[in-house]
Amino acid sequence: MTMRTLIVLRHAKAVHTPGLADPERPLTDRGERDARRVGETLAAMGLRPDLVLCSPAVRTRRTAELALPGEPVEFERDIYEAYADELLALVRRADPEVRTLLLVGHNPGVHELVLGLTMHAGDPGFPPGAFAVIETGDEWAELESGRAVTRWSPKDN
């Protein structure tokens, strides 16, 4: 059985500016720092994605750019405002050769995806910049569940 790793990342902290369209919201200074820390943490864990799927919103694009400099990123319009089942459907379309997939998106969808795959009780939440690493023996096309290997949040680290 081939193990696969799904990394689910919520974008880092973004500004709330009256009159600015939600997809156009940039990261705060703290969000920029936290996104870099995400990348440092993933590298220290030896996690390098074969595929990065990212919402096209400014805050998710910047999070991916800072966390994964130089990595190719596929922007998927359907990640923005997606529910967990829609995100799962997107992951299920990944090429079977992909071993490590990183999804950069938004709450509540990314948080609900993690909860749905791991059946995690006593959940601590999923603040901006948080990520979960989930291992599974399932093929992407048949992904139903996985084991949460770790959860990381800039608030806790």
Automatic annotation (TrEMBL):
EC class name: hydrolase
Top-level division of the source organism's lineage: Bacteria
Keyword Transferase assigned: no
Protein name stated in the entry: Phosphohistidine phosphatase
GO molecular function terms listed in the Swiss-Prot or TrEMBL record: hydrolase activity
Keyword check for Transcription regulation: no
EC number: 3.1.3.-
A Pfam family assignment: His_Phos_1
Organism: Planomonospora venezuelensis
Record key words, sorted: Hydrolase
SMART domains registered for this protein in UniProt: PGAM
